[in-house]
């Protein structure tokens, strides 16, 4: 009796046909939106273009998203979540606080530059809402390093928000310049440059960061 009950509970938790179709439609819309936003910019993409690329009816769009901007926000949120999840698993055995901060910052930059489309989405988010991105992207992807850098660096006497804004502007321009290299972009070399630049902006000692990657990266 118990075994049958457990079996029934397992079956009930599986998505039914309707739920699977909804999940697939959402996935198609997300993929189409990501492709179009990266290629054209969010402000130049219509809902008609998204649904046409996704191969779904226009009415289906509003079953998942209130607007084009809501889809864009979902994509940015998914990108950040993926980066944070990857970063949370990165914990190199480094005792020196500065070297550890260098390594973790470098890894965050490397992860971003290894996915140019993700970079372009986040850069668009930055141009549309700088303050939101400072809070939801930079502090979340660089988190402790950025906060500690402001507290410990030579800029500690300044308003942190001013430092964040300056940092964001520098990183935005530098990342955009690196992405303009297209296929010639080397994520490792680019991460080297961004990391040293970040530490210089924060008034921290900056030296070539260590490259510590898993074998499958």
Q: How would you characterize this protein structure?
A:
- The protein is mostly helical.
- The protein has ten helices and no strands.
- It has helices spanning 2-13, 17-40, 47-54, 58-61, 68-88, 97-113, 116-128, 130-152, 160-179, 187-201.
- Helix 2 (17-40) crosses helix 5 and helix 6 packs across helix 10.
- The N and C termini lie far apart (48 Å).
- 28% of the residues are buried.
- Mean pLDDT is 78; it is low at 1-5.
Question: Could you provide a short overview of the structure?
Answer:
The chain is mainly α and 217 residues long.
Task: Give the topology, please.
Blueprint lengths: L1 H12 L3 H24 L6 H8 L3 H4 L6 H21 L8 H17 L2 H13 L1 H23 L7 H20 L7 H15 L16
Helix pairs in contact: 2-3, 2-5, 2-7, 5-7, 5-8, 6-8, 6-10, 7-8, 7-9, 8-9, 9-10
Kindly report how far apart the N and C termini lie. 48 Å
Task: Report the sheet with the most strands, covering strand number, pairing sense and barrel closure.
Answer: none
What overall form do the CA principal axes indicate? elongated
Q: Note the run of SSEs as H and E.
A: HHHHHHHHHH
Amount of helix:
over 70%
Mean pLDDT: 78
The assigned structural class equals mainly alpha
Poorly predicted regions are: 1-5
Strand content: under 5%
Query: What's the number of helices?
Result: 10
* Gyration radius, rounded: 21 Å
Strands, total number: 0
């Amino acid at each position: 009796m118990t075994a049958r009950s457990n079996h029934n509970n397992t079956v009930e938790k599986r998505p039914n046909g309707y739920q699977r179709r909804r999940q697939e439609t959402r996935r198609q819309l997300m993929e189409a939106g990501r492709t179009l936003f990266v290629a054209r910019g969010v402000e130049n993409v219509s809902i008609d273009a998204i649904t046409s690329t996704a191969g779904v009816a226009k009415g289906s769009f509003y079953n998942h998203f209130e607007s084009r901007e809501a889809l864009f926000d979902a994509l940015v949120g998914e990108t950040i979540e993926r980066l944070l999840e990857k970063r949370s698993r990165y914990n190199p055995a480094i005792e020196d606080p500065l070297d550890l901060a260098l390594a973790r910052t470098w890894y965050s930059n490397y992860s971003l530059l290894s996915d140019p489309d993700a970079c372009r989405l986040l850069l668009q988010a930055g141009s549309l809402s700088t303050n939101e991105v400072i809070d939801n992207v930079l502090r979340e992807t660089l988190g402790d390093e950025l906060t500690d850098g402001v507290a410990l660096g030579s800029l500690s006497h300044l308003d942190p928000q001013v430092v964040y804004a300056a940092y964001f502007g520098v990183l935005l321009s530098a990342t955009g310049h690196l992405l303009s290299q297209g296929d010639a972009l080397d994520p490792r070399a680019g991460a080297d440059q961004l990391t040293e630049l970040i530490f210089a902006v924060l008034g921290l000692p900056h030296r070539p960061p260590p490259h510590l990657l898993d074998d499958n990266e």
